[in-house]
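To illustrate the input format used throughout this study, we show a single complete record. The first block contains the structure-token representation of the backbone; no residue identities are included at this stage. The design step must infer an amino acid for every position from geometry alone.
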């Protein structure tokens, strides 16, 4: 470990081996933010849910995290594509489209996750109790660390959302909020490259505005 001359911190921790999330050791997984899934959420306000997942993806972009994006049943015509505010941030690369409720049972999805090379997965999926919980439990079983972003996901009821989170936490998942995620990735205000964007996303555009 080395000393950072621009920081008041005593050392620079290993960004790969750090037990906390860093831009170098984590990836974001975004699953099924499609119109019907958003419309069926009953555990939180829909507008707030969309704002929070958009802010989460913006933070991931600022820190250049690998992002695995997946949808369900779009190719079959049964499902609609990812909601527009999110699709615009996720880029032009087509998402992994599945038929399985559990993304971890889709070979292309698993390949995409493994291709990131990251062992810490920040999970955002609709709904909490199904499309977040099922692949999270499988990822944990395979030795990944999983961080569900609790206020950027939603369930079909308050109870279902809570049960999904509790099931994952009991299996070793590590719940986090979108603001805590931003701060954990930033970690030190002396890291000037990302400060302005983090302040804009977290404070200017959200917490000091709403």
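Output of the design step:
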């Amino acid at each position: 470990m080395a000393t950072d001359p621009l920081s008041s911190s005593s050392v620079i921790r290993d960004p790969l081996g750090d037990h906390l999330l860093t831009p170098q050791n984590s990836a974001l997984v975004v699953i099924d933010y499609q119109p019907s899934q958003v419309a069926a959420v009953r555990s939180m306000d829909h507008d707030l849910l969309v704002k929070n997942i958009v802010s989460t993806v913006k933070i991931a972009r600022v820190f250049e995290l690998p992002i695995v994006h997946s949808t369900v049943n779009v190719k079959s015509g049964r499902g609609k594509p990812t909601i527009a505010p999110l699709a615009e941030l996720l880029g032009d690369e087509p998402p992994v489209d599945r038929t399985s409720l559990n993304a971890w049972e889709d070979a292309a999805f698993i390949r995409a996750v493994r291709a990131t090379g990251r062992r810490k997965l920040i999970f955002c999926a609709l709904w909490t109790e199904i499309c977040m919980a099922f692949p999270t439990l499988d990822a944990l079983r395979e030795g990944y660390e999983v961080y569900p972003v609790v206020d950027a996901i939603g369930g079909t009821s308050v109870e279902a959302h809570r049960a999904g989170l509790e099931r994952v936490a009991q299996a070793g998942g590590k719940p986090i909020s979108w603001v805590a995620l931003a701060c954990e990735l930033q970690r030190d205000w002396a890291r000037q490259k990302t400060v302005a964007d983090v302040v804009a996303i977290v404070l200017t555009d959200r917490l000091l505005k709403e």
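Structural context for interpreting the output: The chain has one domain: 26-207. The chain has eight helices and five strands.
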